[in-house]
């Protein structure tokens, strides 16, 4: 599931495969702005059935935290 989430995020951000890792911090990815963040949360739910409450999604700082909220860690 972790790999599917990372691929989905890379697809939404339109970045090359391997750009996003478990150690990626959101602020370090230029394309990962607030609009992209909302799109990612929506796509996670729509495509993978991963639901992250909006109040928690807003506070995410990096991939480890996102994966944890998605139930991958």
Concise description?
With 73 residues, the protein is an all-alpha fold. It has helices at 2-13, 34-48, 54-58, 63-69.
Describe this structure in words.
The chain is mostly helical and 73 residues long. It has one domain (2-69): Orthogonal Bundle (Non-ribosomal Peptide Synthetase Peptidyl Carrier Protein, Chain A), CATH 1.10.1200. The chain has four helices and no strands. The chain has helices spanning 2-13, 34-48, 54-58, 63-69. α1 crosses α2. It is globular.
Q: How would you sum up the global shape?
A: globular
Give the CATH architecture: Orthogonal Bundle
Q: Unreliable runs, pLDDT <50, ≥5 residues?
A: none
Q: Portion of residues in helices?
A: 40-55%
% residues in beta strands: under 5%
Please give the number of β-strands: 0
Alpha carbon gyration radius? 11 Å
Number of helices: 4
Whole-number total of structural domains: 1
CATH class: Mainly Alpha
> CATH-wise, what's the superfamily?
ACP-like
Order of helical and strand elements: HHHH
Structural class: mainly alpha
Mean pLDDT: 96
Calculate the terminal CA-CA distance, rounded to whole Å. 10 Å
Largest sheet: none
The name of the CATH topology is: Non-ribosomal Peptide Synthetase Peptidyl Carrier Protein, Chain A
